Amino acid sequence: MKTRSTRNRGRLLFAGLLTSLLAGPAQAMVQEITAVFNPDPGNPTKNEFRNTTPVSGVCAWHMPARCEQMGIFTIRTDSFSTVGVPIEADHEDERKGAMWQVPSSWKDVQVTNTRTGEVETVQVRIGGIGHRFNTLPHNAAWDVPGGYWQSFWLYAPSPCSSSYFLTGTGTYALFFWLVPEGAGVCSRQARQPISNFWLSTFEFAYALKTPNPLSMSGGLYTGSHTYTIGPGMDFDFGDVVIPTDSQLTLNFALSVEHALKVDLPPGGNRVILQPQGGWQAWLNQGRRPTRLFRDQTFAISSSSRFKMNLECSVVIGNTCGLRNDAGDEVPLQIAVSLPFGLNNQRGDSVTKQPLRLDGVGTELFQPTQYVNNRPGTLHFEVEKEDVSEMLKHPGSTYSGVATVIWDSEV
Q1: 351 φ, ψ (degrees, to nearest 5)
Q2: How far apart are the C-alpha atoms of 356 and 368, rounded to whole Å?
Q3: Alpha helices (runs of H) in 47-129, residue ranges in sequence order
Q4: Domains within the chain, CATH numbers bracketed
Q5: Sign of the Cα pseudo-torsion (158, 139, 203, 100, in order)
Q6: What SS3 state is found at 224?
Q7: Is 347 helix (H, G, I), strand (E, B) or coil?
Q8: For residues 382 and 292, is the Cβ–Cβ distance under 8 A?
Q9: Under DSSP, is residue 118 helix (H, G, I), strand (E, B) or coil?
């Protein structure tokens, strides 16, 4: 018997994080987000993508544990600015002052396997917003009755919530607010006239929902989504605070690196069929064997879908055969049992599933979790009526080669 397994290795990158924000000629910021899936033998039930893009801003330096708990990532960049504008004191229209409305609802983004053309869906939403804001003549223009401007910006206005991050001096400050799903406008009203107000950094938090990597083919999946920036757009800063960039494009690159490995014990590729209890019962007692069989164990590690195929040196019908020196042939029945965590295409466990040359019944096996070095069994058997044919040729040896293939190219 020969065995062969094929590995389909890819890298799954999520291009939804800001590794770098680049200003393009069309006044657009472009962000690459990277993530990868590869199975973890130490934690086989954790089957999800790992974000590999560097994090900056509050999630890196101010509240990493809280960000991890909330499932968000932040990126801060200096390659952003708005046109400086005056703001009236006590303006009634929130669009005439400092305001933010961001795309906080989930957005579906299609990503396509560059090798197979398979399409999967990633979901992304913006979960926070922050800037460096600059105020002339002084941040005291934001003072509230009985308080100071610091508390006015530290504690976010509804529907936003506070990250408790604020730092600054008399004319500028950095802040960051969290934005719940589906939130509307968050704004602040100046208490005194401001001669010049502008933003000079850009920070946002985002959250991702990724597809199940166990159901994906290995390889690189790419896609992109562009948010618009400006009055009435996806990122809306009101009617007076006008960004110099008009778009933010998120480029997604998801890399899936699967494992598929099959190992036989030493000598396991040589299968010797025997009757139940060995040949002594026939030799010593004349008891004719009713079947010849051998169960050969193997160890399998798999995080990917796969199929199994059969190749034979002697073909009899839809299976392999054994032949003696005189050319007499008998069919060899071959079946497979797989460990817990590997199911057939109906979602059922796999026990003595026949392996056939046409591949029917073994077109798809799929993991429910990463299976790491677990035992399976190949079952080889010559059935009763075929054993009777073999016994008509005493002293002869029947042999053949069966090649069992585990193939992740499903």
Answers
A1: -135, 115
A2: 25
A3: 58-61, 64-70
A4: 29-257 (no CATH), 261-407 (2.60.40)
A5: positive
A6: strand
A7: coil
A8: yes
A9: coil
Structure tokens, 44: 């086989």
Query: Three-state DSSP class for 67?
Result: helix
Q: Which residue has the tokens 């006044």?
A: 27
Residue of 82, 81, 123 lying closest to 106 (CA atoms):
123
What sign has the CA pseudo-torsion 263, 264, 269, 272? negative
| Calpha distance 379→293 (Å, rounded) | 7
* Rounded-to-integer distance, Cα 124 and Cα 126, Å: 7
Name the nearest CA neighbour of 73 among 253, 209, 202, 205. 205
Residue with tokens 């014990």: 265
pLDDT single digits (tens) 176-207: 999 999 999 999 999 899 999 999 999 999 99
**Rounded distance between C-alpha atoms, residue 333 and residue 238, angstroms:** 73
Residue with tokens 């562009």: 226
Q: What digits encode the pLDDT tens for the residues 327-362?
A: 999 999 999 999 999 999 999 999 999 999 999 999
Q: Dig out the tokens for 4 from the structure.
A: 């062969």
- Global pTM? 0.82
- Length of the chain equals 410
